[in-house]
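yo, Small ribosomal subunit biogenesis GTPase RsgA is done. seq:
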Amino acid sequence: MPHTYTDPSGLSRYGWTGTLDRTFTEHHEAGLVPARISRVDRGMCTAITASGPTRATFVAPHPSDPLLTPCTGDWAALRPGTEPHLVALLPRHGAIVRSSASRSSHGQVLAANVDTVVIALSLATPLDPAKLERLLALAWESGAQPVIVLTKADLADQPEAVQAEAGALAPGVEILVTSVTTGHNIDALAALLHGTTVLLGPSGAGKSSLGNVLLGEELLATGRVRAQDGKGRHTTVRRELVPLPGGGVLIDTPGLRAISLHDAADGLEQVFAEIEELAARCRFGDCAHDTEPGCAVQAAIEAGELTERRLDSYRKLQRENTWAASRTDARLRDERVKRQKAITSHLRATYRFRDQQP
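structure:
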């Protein structure tokens, strides 16, 4: 008899769908219940089930891999009871991943199963093109739709000029100038959000204030910023998932100071689509876009259609991403060698034991 989910309404506001329900069939038959992870602490998490939130334990993967560890936004199979326990994660349809702060070869998942990425940047400080390009690469690589939100319009002299500058860096991306103080464009932003939305941006950009306005109540902690540089303290210290009143859910994240890429080749192609298109027209397929004859990229720079800064940023992020990918490949090779050595050692011990038997 085909399985049917008997109570979808309890989790539908958190994004539960028929597709997820079908994926969960075997877990249902094993007596497990679906849950969405809203917050993760050390060895514990808050999981939302059809009957409400619960605290649950989980076992970190071995060898430890942050990409396989439960994260805010994940869907999971939960064993209910007096001591709830996460048994398995459902496949992610996408995730926002950066290189770990430890600079190891592992990636760090900032949020899972995201549909919309709100990149919040403050108009109270000058726009940092390189930072915006990095954030856009993270967003596009996740498979989500980015939206750039320029906050604190009430503190800016020429918000339209910054909006135009951001638009040149992110063609095809919706850009909104907002103010939580005056309410400017907040309704327009709410109309753009769908599914699971995550707030990304540096500390002091006003992400939590923006989130509170969208949520309709003060659920997210906020703090002051330094007047001299517009930077704020990390008032948001962990990722947390909260339902939005108009449907969907919102994930607030701590301010990002280090935005290192991890396996973001597709995201970079999207961010620098015009350079990728120009490169395809170069005379040589391995053109370095330097002094080679017939270089369409250099021709665009000479014609004023592309800036040297944009090309330098593209090269820098490509090098960084290639380096991160090589580190990951090396780690995977080492892990395969270690597993093979462990298997060989086990077999040798088994043979020795067998040979010693009378």
